[in-house]
Write the C-alpha cells for this entry.
Amino acid sequence: MRPDFQTIDEITRRLSDAVPGELKTARSEVEKQFRGVLENAFNRLDLVTREEFEIQKKVLLRTRQKLERLEALLEQNDPPAAE
C-alpha cells in the first residue's frame, strides 16, 4: 500500500508545530526530515487502506456464509453415525 500522503502531511505539521520556538527557523528542514522518516516507516509497514480492509471483510463474511451452507448440506446428506 502506498502511504496516505495527507496523513503524513498532517503528522508532519503536528510534529513541526511541536518543535520549540527557537528551532522554528529550521522548520522547513525539520518538516522534510519528519516527512522522510514517516514515509520510510509507513513504507516498511504492511498496511492496507480502510477501503481495502472493508472489501476483504465482506469477502470473508460471504465465504463464511457459503462454508456454513455447505456444512449444513453435508450434515443433511451424511448425518453423523449414532453411537
